[in-house]
Amino acid sequence: KKSERCGRGRTGRGPRAIMEPDELYNIRNNYWIGNYQKAIAEGSSMGRLSEAKKVECKEFVYRSYIALGQCNIVLSEVPESASTPVALLAVKQLARYLSSPGSKEEVVAQFNSWLASPQDGSTASLQLMAALVFLHQGDTKEALRCVHLGSTLEHLALSVQIYLKMDRPDLAAKTVKTMQQADEDATLAQLALAWTHVAVGGSKLQEAAYIFDELADKFEATVLLRNGSAVANVHLGNYDEAEKLLLDALTKGQNDPDTLINLVCCYQHMAKPEDLINRYINQLKAVAPRHPFVEQLATVEGAFARVKDTYKAGIEA
After folding, report:
1. Helix, strand or coil for residue 79?
2. C-alpha distances in angstroms, 187 versus 10, 29, 230?
3. Percent of the chain scoring above 70 in pLDDT
4. What mean pLDDT is predicted for residues 116-142?
5. Nearest Cα to 248, choosing from 268, 278, 224?
6. Strands of the chain, DSSP E
7. CA-CA distance, 228 to 242, in Å (whole number)?
8. How far apart are CA 167 and CA 234, in angstroms?
9. Nearest-CA neighbor of 35 among 226, 192, 241, 189?
10. Which of 22, 8, 18 is nearest to 182 (CA)?
11. For the whole prediction, is pTM greater than 0.70?
12. DSSP character for 22?
């Protein structure tokens, strides 16, 4: 039986749930479930807000543009000035990191400088953006250092992802409990629980699929939620259901790398024709040439080609 725990209306900004009207609930929630275009629309139509809320609203709008691959909008709209809040400057640096490979070292140096600053180092949004950059760098230790104290639910949710990346589902589960103590019904708490269930596997997989499906039913069936449910179903051996979910995700984002990767994996389990699998692999290479999966695949293919050439040369000799 599906649980009914997908809540709404709390701020979600601190580890402790705050029971008060949350003007930014919709924009935050849409961002967290991967409904980025709707988050942008919500942010663009907000009425009167306090200065702090205005900054946070812009932050989620710009992060949504980054998630859609439109870093140029962030780079052009966020001014490099002393009056620009560091939270927005941090989002701009993330956009710069993702869109300009040659700037990566400068961006990392800037984040290290901010984090060492007594004035800026404790800014929650800065810590979150820094953690994301360090994760892209492959530096999980520094990423975790930025968010492990959990000053917001987003810090805790990212900590869960980092622990899972480190193959520490035990620490992830402990962090999920902290999130549930703050607000068990929060969308982020539900997502973190589902991620952890997928990592743990076994009897938890069905519950993970239920959580992703409930969030899709309650809010919207986004690419992110469809992929989450599909991964759980692949682990359960429900390949037909996983394929259906992934094809639906593909209609919502035809060039989404995660969908393409998961579809390739699903089709391999289903023993689909090689030409069909290669079609999606080639599409993935075209739309996300710097994706870690593509780079690892290129390494494997290169190694195989070298072994093949060596073997061929040995036979000809």
Report:
1. coil
2. 10, 7, 19
3. 90
4. 95
5. 224
6. none
7. 10
8. 19
9. 226
10. 18
11. yes
12. -
